[in-house]
């Protein structure tokens, strides 16, 4: 007879997660065997405290439970943790029913868009339905089996509601398959009715001895590989666009080798930045709407765009108007991404696929004049970045580039040769554009940006998740005042958990990025800057962000200028607990170098002449879009 153990559903779930081990490739190439699930972020309520809470307490030495302050914040932190580990490890999150669960919907969508693993374990209403409607239950007038958790269906890769104990024997391995699948990777939701959490079952002993997790690396099909080689060999002016898939596949060495061997210049998406060291002679920098003049100039001239591990998002492609003249080759593990815009697909793991291409393309190189020209443009852009980030604004308010420079240069103030140890975290507003162009990343993963979902409020929680994943690195969160106000409570969690992060808040008093977009589309300034939003009887906003940071337990200071920012960062780097540094900035200045058109629909009819002019320009720009 098969050996079994009698446990509740919650106890079995926790024991299974605690038993999972994964083969993890570190950024330095070292391979470690580590727990696949590093812990569970939990905010308990009446739906999960008695069942799952009891099980987590019993296994806290093998599967740590971490306390957070908001459900969205803890889920964002879990997403960031997985991204910082290049999808090789996860954290789980559990909430009570109702608002606790739906607070995590934004994080699920974020993980879904960015192809990142996230295990969601929200409590659910009673499967017996006898006490219905319970506190926080969402009742459907037409569907008796619907709860708030059904909202997770469109924003998860796999959804299941555990209605009976034995279903967990099927659901957990299915969930693990999705979380670890290189092509289908994304968020998973296992909804746990609160009575089912407490039901006992006789579980097979071998269920708690799962196999070691090793990430699969599928090779390319022979015919697709041959077609891709033929396309590359016919190109004289190829350009690589390195996306997040390069990092998820740990393919940075393969990318560098391919670029050097074949003389192909490289540009980087937001997700792919740090795939190639910033000072590599063939690194043209950021591409697209927030791209460098070097990368975007090459995109407009290339005859083949080699998209590697990228979703070809509109910010990367200039809404598909940046390189309409080029043929498209897409190396990607995900079929949907590989076949976009009728490009030639090469379906494979990025690292494996690049290795196959290098072997099959022996002797082929891009046109030498093209490679030399791109190297020259890359060097010129590197010089320009230094100029932009070291500029002294004098008595004027600094803008983002000057703050970015102060943050990076502050590393030398504490005896470091460079800021290579820093991981910068950001997500929304003007900062992603400036960081994409100007931040210098020498090591894979040291640029951590959510620009797939561009989730305001991701930054502080994301910084905590990155610090949990990379405690040896200095994690610097650079965030605007608007995004900070969206979600900041995990700053207190970082203090509680003893995971120091440095938060640099740029206060431009509103949504400066959106105001510029508003005016650029012909509109009038409206409802974006705080000082313009005070109604009769209202009061001018006067938020003291440094005081707020101190109230959360962090050390905090408001600095006068970029020079003082550098000095305070010197102190912050030496500190042992989380730090907040606030600086007033202007949204009126941005880096004018580079950039590309971005499709934002402009009204056909308006009383404003500026809108009519913007609409004419909009229609003209659309004629360049790739069809």
UniProtKB/TrEMBL annotation:
One of its GO terms (molecular function) is acetolactate synthase activity. Transmembrane segments: none annotated. Residues 428-580 form the Thiamine pyrophosphate enzyme TPP-binding domain. This is Thiamine pyrophosphate enzyme domain protein TPP-binding. Belongs to the TPP enzyme family. One of its GO terms (cellular component) is acetolactate synthase complex. Keywords: Thiamine pyrophosphate. Signal peptide: none annotated. It comes from Verminephrobacter eiseniae (strain EF01-2).
């Amino acid at each position: 007879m098969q050996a079994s153990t009698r446990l509740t559903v919650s106890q079995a779930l926790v024991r299974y997660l605690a038993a999972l081990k994964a083969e993890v490739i570190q950024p330095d190439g070292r391979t470690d065997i580590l727990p696949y699930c590093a812990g569970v972020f939990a905010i308990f309520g009446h739906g999960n405290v008695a069942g799952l809470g009891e099980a987590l307490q019993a296994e806290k030495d093998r599967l740590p439970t971490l306390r957070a302050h908001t459900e969205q914040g803890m889920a964002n932190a879990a997403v960031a943790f997985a991204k910082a580990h290049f999808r090789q490890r996860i954290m789980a999150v559990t909430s009570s029913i109702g608002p606790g669960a739906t607070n995590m919907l934004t994080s699920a969508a974020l993980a879904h868009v960015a192809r990142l693993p996230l295990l969601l374990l929200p409590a659910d209403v009673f499967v017996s339905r006898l006490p219905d409607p319970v506190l926080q239950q969402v009742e459907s007038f037409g569907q008796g089996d619907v709860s708030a958790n059904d909202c997770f269906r469109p924003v998860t890769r796999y959804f299941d509601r555990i209605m009976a104990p034995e279903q967990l024997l099927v659901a957990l391995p299915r969930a693990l398959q999705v979380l670890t699948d290189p092509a289908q990777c994304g968020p998973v939701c296992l909804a746990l009715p609160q009575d089912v959490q407490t039901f006992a079952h006789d579980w097979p002993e071998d269920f708690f001895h799962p196999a070691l997790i090793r990430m699969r690396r599928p090779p390319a099909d022979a015919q697709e590989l041959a077609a891709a080689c033929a396309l590359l060999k016919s190109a004289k002016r190829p350009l690589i666009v390195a996306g997040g898939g390069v990092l998820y596949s740990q393919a940075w060495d393969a990318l560098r080798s391919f670029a050097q061997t074949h003389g192909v210049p490289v540009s980087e998406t937001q997700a792919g930045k740090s795939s190639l060291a910033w000072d590599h002679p063939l690194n043209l920098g950021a591409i697209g709407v927030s791209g460098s003049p070097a990368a975007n100039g090459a995109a407009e001239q290339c005859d083949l765009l080699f998209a590697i591990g990228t979703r070809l998002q509109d910010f990367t492609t200039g809404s598909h108007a940046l390189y309409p003249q080029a043929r498209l080759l897409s190396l990607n593990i995900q079929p949907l991404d590989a076949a976009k815009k009728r490009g030639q697909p090469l379906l494979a793991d990025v690292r494996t696929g690049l290795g196959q291409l290098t072997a099959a393309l022996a002797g082929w190189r891009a046109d030498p004049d093209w490679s030399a020209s791109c190297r020259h443009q890359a060097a010129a852009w590197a010089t320009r970045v230094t100029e932009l980030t070291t500029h002294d604004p004098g008595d004027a308010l600094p803008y983002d580039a000057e703050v970015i420079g102060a943050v990076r240069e502050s590393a030398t103030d504490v005896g470091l040769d460079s800021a290579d140890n820093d991981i910068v975290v950001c997500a929304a507003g003007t900062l992603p554009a400036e960081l994409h162009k100007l931040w210098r990343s020498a090591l894979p993963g040291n640029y951590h940006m959510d620009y797939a979902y561009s989730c305001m409020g991701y930054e502080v929680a994301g910084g905590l998740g990155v610090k949990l994943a990379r405690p040896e690195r200095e994690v610097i969160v650079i965030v605007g005042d608007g995004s900070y106000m969206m979600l900041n409570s995990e700053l207190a969690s970082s203090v509680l958990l003893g995971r120091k992060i440095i938060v640099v808040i740029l206060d431009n008093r509103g949504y400066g990025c959106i105001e510029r977009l508003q005016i650029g589309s012909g509109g009038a300034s409206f409802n974006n800057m705080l000082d313009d939003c005070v109604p009769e009887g209202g009061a001018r906003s006067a938020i003291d962000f440094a005081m707020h940071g101190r109230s959360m337990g962090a050390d905090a200071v408001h600095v006068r200028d970029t020079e003082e920012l550098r000095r305070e960062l010197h102190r912050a780097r030496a500190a042992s607990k989380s730090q907040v540094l606030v600086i007033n900035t202007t949204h009126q200045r941005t880096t004018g170098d580079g950039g590309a058109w971005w499709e934002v629909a402009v009204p056909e009819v308006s009383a404003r002449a500026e809108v009519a002019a913007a609409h004419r320009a909009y229609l003209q720009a659309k004629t360049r879009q790739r069809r």
